């Protein structure tokens, strides 16, 4: 036998009862053998790789599927081996299951013959569910008045206690430590190099929470009367009068409320609606900040007195109201009204409502705040409005 003949094998390829006897090189790959077999049985129209991939070659002797990347010798084929050419069945495309629930129209059509039952009860449950979801929103709205009442009451008590000034200084120290800006801060240098006074720069960066762009806008607005502002904010020692503990806490509350309003992001849609009603842009901005983007309260404030500065948030609770009486009757509240950490927490949340989440993680303060939330929800669920 010549070497050329030893390099070739005779094989039998079978497809759907038809037989093809072929002679192929032992170095040929199974992919080439498959292409030749498909071309023989089905014509040259299936020579593309995507169509050839549907076919497999199975060695009858071992019942093994031959690998496309292997050669004839690597698959250890022998003379007169029978090979089946098999076309893999393509699974039919199945549409994704329809997981959509029935529409309101379909439900009404399917149940229109049924009599109405328990309509009042279901409506009542829906209303109660809405109230449950509304508790957090109501507390967020009422909390400034609650916290102001607690701070004022605590300050009044400290005003007549020997260590009242000491507690005040502790609160002010902690309060200012979170707001102090280093004089050597690059932001301070950047703005002072532009010609603004260092004191106003520090105040602007503090109020705007280190936002340089907003601080610069504020400084530019104040630049026209900066000298008057400096004189107004730096009274002489002969004119200054010592303030009481209550007055000091009232100043802290006013500063917290001012920063709270400055940090409120205005709802531009509400701004446009109020402009269409004929109100001035400056009055609209002030009213929306004071009412925390509540359009009804903003309209009422603009109609009653466009130039008024009394925000609904700065009102304390009525001392004769049920919520105030319930708080003052609580031993938990009574024991903490004069503690500096509790007063600091109230001021922090009054300034930034988002800090409530952080204070709720404090082991000492969380129990008091949770009690206030529970007390508020009890008042609201009883149908009583905070006055």
UniProtKB/TrEMBL annotation:
Entry protein name: Ubiquitin-associated domain-containing protein 1 isoform X1
Organism: Frankliniella occidentalis
Coiled-coil portions: none
Ranges of residues in domain UBA: 182-222, 265-305
A Pfam family annotated for this UniProt entry: UBA_7
Gene3D superfamilies linked: DNA helicase RuvA subunit, C-terminal domain
Highest taxon, organism lineage: Eukaryota
Cross-referenced PROSITE patterns: UBA
